[in-house]
Amino acid sequence: MTTALGRPVSPELVPDDRRGGNARLVPLFVATAASVGLAARSVPVERNATTVSAIAGLLVAGLAIFLLQSIRARWASRVVVLLGAVIMVRYGEASGGGAFTSVRSLLWAAATVAAFVLGSRLGSASVDARAEDVGRGGRLMSALQAIAVVAALVVAATLAFGPRVSSWMSPSAASGRSADRRDRVQSNPMVAADQMDAASRPRLSDRLVMTVRSPRPSFWRTGTFDRFDGQRWTRSNAGAALVAGGSVSTPADDLSARSGEPLVQRIRLEAAYSEVLPAAPSPVSVESRSLLAQWSDGTIVAADAPLGVGTSYTVTSRQIPVTDAAMAAADGQPVPDAVLRRYAARPTASSRVAQLVAEVTAGVNGTRAKVDALIAWMGSNLTYSLDAPLPSRGGDVVDEFLFTTKQGWCEQIASALTVMLRELGIPARVATGFVPGEWDPVTQAYRVRERDAHAWTEVWFAGLGWVPFDPTASVPPAGSTTSGAAASWWWDHAVAVLLAIALVVGLASPVGRAVHRAAAAWRARSARRTRSSWSPGWVGVVVADLERYGRRGGRPREPNETVTRFTAELADRTGDSRFAELGEALDAVSFGADPPADSRDRLEPLARELSTPSGTLGRASRIRD
Asked: Contact at 8 Å (CB) between 231 and 397?
């Protein structure tokens, strides 16, 4: 035999699982190449990642399995598969997008399990290539059960430790793939818009936008707006500046940024196109590999190029804990003139909106009490609906929503509350971004989707700064609508659910057989004790060693098989007649009328010699390979 480099290799030095030709290694090679190739697909690179990862998987797997002739093929495969697992933890769904939540993860798990099982069975087949004690159907069931058990173990380990390990391995910032510029449309909530159109219906799909690792939930804000023309909100200061040294500059009215408690968020983008970097208010620093800029309110945006899938960044925000007592105490404190001029100036609103506000808040004292009164009225008289009629062209969105359609989506609901507060001279603005999303206990992260895009109202309180209020949460939905949350949960966790079922199915048969074997062995022992109550205990130890050795060699003892019959089979397979002689002697000791006195001294050493890992069964099988 020679290696690929032409140097001769002694047959005695070739590992057992490589004997029999390279054709036996092809299935293992395919599974290994698929595992490492799919893992490499998770690395954030350009759009030709599929071709690159496939070629890389083929080359690495081929080198390990076909060229490294001096090591066992199954161990070469396992090293390569382990490399793929490290890549998956570092870059894949386990690092933030959710362990085993995509079709690629499903395929990777299947290929990884197949590589482990094929490698193991390749090794066991080399120990006893001629084992014929079970038929083809039995071998197939055995393989399927092994795959189910290994799959369950792989997934359980990944689900349990993957997110935690990846939190140690993943950097605080990473570059992603190139952005898909085809998704640069107004309805994309990740586009850095300079205005919010309350008359446009939002795009709320189940697409995953980002995952957020944060010790507590928050709104993930993408912008604030303070000027309203009846249909659109804009910012009075629309300028942008580069983020220097990762420090975010915040305006004087943002009190949280100066004295709030820190909140660190590690965010991974999953959207195909992103211009804005969502963050909890109020961001004070950001770590990213991209060139970033910021708006005057502290919102972080990409400065020179949009961001793609796999981009990750870390934001430190500050938030002042808000309590009812703190908001009540704010009523007696002065509000800076700059805040009043910019955020409390009377907005564009109809006379009946002003009249409604006066009626609802008549006799109500205090900023917080007035906010609560307006939200309560909205909850009793308005409904939420994405199918609400579109406002008339050039009309007043808030007026039509409050008095005509009485149905609207979150942008219209937040706009109405903000406008009504402005009518009272209360500083308020509209904020956009995302609600926290769905908490995934597997990945220890919030999974935020397009349908989580939201708009809410922020109200300024002395000593607290901007405090968020979500009037949409109090406005009931119109009719019955389905969000698809349940369906998306099943899809996200489909692999874990399927493999949990596989675990139950895969273990049911082995457990049942184990119970059956244990019961049969107990019955056999009971029968033997009845026939010979004085059978010495050392015989059972010797028989257990032989049974263990037989299992390693691919010839387990059947439940009702006698020791004589079992050892005769071992003798036939190994060509060593001492197995048969040993079995007959053991049965004679157990059931004979007058066993020799020196039986133990003769039989125990022979049993130890025959049942060692380097005994005749192993030697004979390697010779036959």
From this structure: yes
Amino acid at 541: V
Residues 46 and 130 in one domain: yes
275/189 Cα distance (integer angstroms): 10
- One domain, residues 123 and 191: no
Handedness of CA 435, 410, 378, 233 (dihedral sign): positive
Reduced to 3 states (helix: H, G, I; strand: E, B; else coil), residue 466 is strand
Domain count, the chain: 3
The 8-class DSSP code of residue 474 comes to G
For residues 546 and 434, membership in a common domain is answered with: no
Helix (H), strand (E) at residue 429: strand 428-434
Domain shared by 611 and 585, yes or no: yes
Give the integer Cα–Cα distance in Å for 49 and 575.
54
556 lies in the same domain as 577: yes
Q: Which residue has the tokens 């070629």?
A: 55
Identify whether residues 116 and 213 lie together within a single domain: no
Residue type, 159: L
Q: Identify the CA nearest to 109 among candidates 120, 124, 94, 122.
A: 94
CB 518, CB 560: distance < 8 Å: no
Whether the Cβ atoms of residue 268 and residue 96 lie closer than 8 Å to each other:
yes
H helical segments located in 222-289: 256-259
Asked if the structure places residue 5 within a domain, the reply is: no
SS3 217: coil
* Residue 464 identity (one-letter amino acid): L
3-state secondary structure of 533: coil
The CB-based long-range contact list for 355-364 (8 Å cut-off, 24+ gap) reads: 356/402, 356/420, 357/420, 357/423, 357/424, 360/420, 361/424
C-alpha 275/C-alpha 177 separation (Å) is 14
Average pLDDT on 601-605 reads 81
Task: Look at residue 508 and tell me if it is in a domain.
Answer: no
Quick one: 73 and 222 in the same domain? Answer: no
CA distances to 150, 163, 374, 472, 477 from 380, rounded to whole Å, are 56, 43, 10, 12, 11
DSSP-derived letter for residue 244 is B
Q: Note whether 189 and 129 are same-domain residues.
A: no
Name the 3-class secondary structure at 294: strand
| Rounded-to-integer distance, Cα 222 and Cα 495, Å | 33
Q: Which of the four pLDDT bands, split at 50, 70 and 90, describes residue 149?
A: low
- pLDDT at residue 521 tops 80: no
pTM across the whole model = 0.62
Domain range for 356: 181-492
Q: What would the pLDDT profile of 352-371 be if each residue is shown by its tens digit?
A: 999 999 999 999 999 999 99
Q: What is the mean pLDDT of residues 296-322?
A: 93
Residue carrying structure tokens 């990642």: 49
* Within-domain flag for 214: yes
**Predicted confidence band of residue 373 (pLDDT cuts 50, 70, 90):** very high
Show the tokens assigned to 236: 């009075």
Per the CB < 8 A criterion, the answer to whether 284 and 247 are in contact is: yes
pLDDT digits (tens, 9 = 90+) for 152-201: 555 555 555 555 555 555 556 777 788 888 888 888 999 998 899 998 88
